[in-house]
């Protein structure tokens, strides 16, 4: 199994994994779990489960956004890095994920996303791996001020990508997932130096 190397005494990278899908059997959520397993001791990956509790964004509610938004902002702030996996809905990212990012983007330029290391996975049972959602989510994260790192990872035929053990059946996907985690680690290590 590929794992991330970590020097002795180094704290694990705290990664908040954010699936754009609310579906119980989501392939995107499953890919994030696989990434967590592949990260081994170098990564402490938490799969965020608060997306459904984020209400529709309104500027009128910004002063008192409510518990769902406050919990999201705390979870984002407490992570070293964010790892997203997004489905593609009608050739873009799902509305619930865009909505959450609209909340998280505020106040513009000083938000919890400003300068935050982030990486993006797109996954679809189709042949294109949700690449239009991947591109749109990357664009939105950059607009929010996040530092998006890592190679593009779009998982086509995603329903066949993981085995019974929840891990990738193919070496290419294992390498790509560990590569994204390594890129996040590198971004966190070098933050403020570039
Ligand atoms: C889809 N799906 C889809 N797939 C795709 O490759 N391109 C697309 O544009 C769309 N559009 C779309 C719209 C809506 C409303 C739904 C519900 C689905 C199929 C989608 O990729 C599939 O349901 C995935 O399994 C969703 O990801 P999760 O939930 O398994 O992570």
Report what the structure shows.
With 194 residues, the protein is of the alpha/beta class. The protein has one domain (13-189): Rossmann fold (3-Layer(aba) Sandwich). The protein contains five helices and six strands; from the N terminus they run βαβαβαβαββα. It has helices at residues 27-39, 67-78, 95-104, 131-143, 171-189; strands at residues 13-19, 43-47, 81-86, 117-123, 147-148, 153-155. Strands 1, 2, 3, 4, 5 and 6 form a six-stranded parallel sheet that branches. Helix 4 (131-143) links the parallel strand 4 and strand 5 (147-148). It is globular, with a radius of gyration of 16 Å. The relative contact order is 0.19.
CATH topology assignment: Rossmann fold
Shape: globular
- For the record, the CATH architecture stands as 3-Layer(aba) Sandwich
Helix and strand pattern = EHEHEHEHEEH
Helix content: 25-40%
The CATH class name reads Alpha Beta
**Uncertain segments:** none
Based on the model shown, name its key terms.
194 residues; alpha/beta; Rossmann fold; six-stranded parallel sheet; 5 helices; 35% helix; globular; binds ligand FNR
Quick summary:
The protein is built from 5 helices and 6 strands; from the N terminus they run E-H-E-H-E-H-E-H-E-E-H.
Task: Please render the helix and strand layout as text.
Elements lengths: L12 E7 L7 H13 L3 E5 L19 H12 L2 E6 L8 H10 L12 E7 L7 H13 L3 E2 L4 E3 L15 H19 L5
Parallel strand pairs: 1-2, 1-3, 3-4, 4-5, 4-6
Helix pairs in contact: 1-5
Bound molecules: ligand FNR.
